[in-house]
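ASSEMBLY PREDICTION REQUEST
Request ID: AP-0331
Submitted by: J.K., bench scientist
Number of chains: two
Total residues: 239
Priority: normal
Notes: Please return the full assembly, not individual chains.
Input sequences:
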Amino acid sequence: EVQLVESGGALVQPGGSLRLSCTASGFTFSRYWMKWVRQAPGKGLEWVANIKQDGNEKNYADSVKGRFTISRDNAKNSLFLQMNSLRAEDTAVYYCARVDVFTVGPTFSRTKYYYYYYMDVWGKGTTVTVSS
Amino acid sequence: DIQMTQSPSSLSASVGDRVTITCRASRSVSDFLNWYQQKPGKAPKVLIYAASRLQSGVPSRFSGSGSETDFTLTISSLQPEDFAIYYCQQSYITPVTFGGGTKVEIK
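STATUS: Completed
Returned structure:
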């Protein structure tokens, strides 16, 4: 069964740090981009960070840049999110998600390849609460 | 960043109704548009990718259309299990961004 399981969420004081983990099973983890997406209580979805298959390309939302670090260990089928300098507004459920891609080759109307990325497998989430 | 605006933010409908949700992008995203369904306490689930392609295992009553800045998710005949929040998301450019969500409730 294809599965993602997050862990590491906790109650932490403002300014504190936390490391989230996401363990993958049932698929070849090293073949996929991965993302972290969060959802504040009663709010919508917010992309946090993503990482390429080999870990050599990473992107971050402006709201977390310089404070959060995404990483992965393909040998252990694991994704991580190191969160430092935590703020109250970081309180959320954090989901890890697998990124699948649909590729469209050259056609009559398009002359190059197009890559459509979407999040096809999600974990159940882990809760981070930042409060004193 | 590309802003995604969904309308309505909520709607009430009955089982069997045809439901349409709209998503508008602040600038063109071509057809790099995905739709997700989220039920209370659960993770989101992808329904549609590339604006109109149905994810494997998703019932055919769900369909997506649109391009550039205007997109639609349609549920042809609402079923009890479809009461949820629906989000659009553009994957055209980083940062990927989501719409604010549309809550579909029972009338």
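REVIEWER COMMENTS: The interface with chain B takes residues 37, 44-47, 50, 59, 61-62, 95, 102, 104, 116-120, 122-125 of chain A (CB under 8 Å).
SIGN-OFF: pending second reviewer
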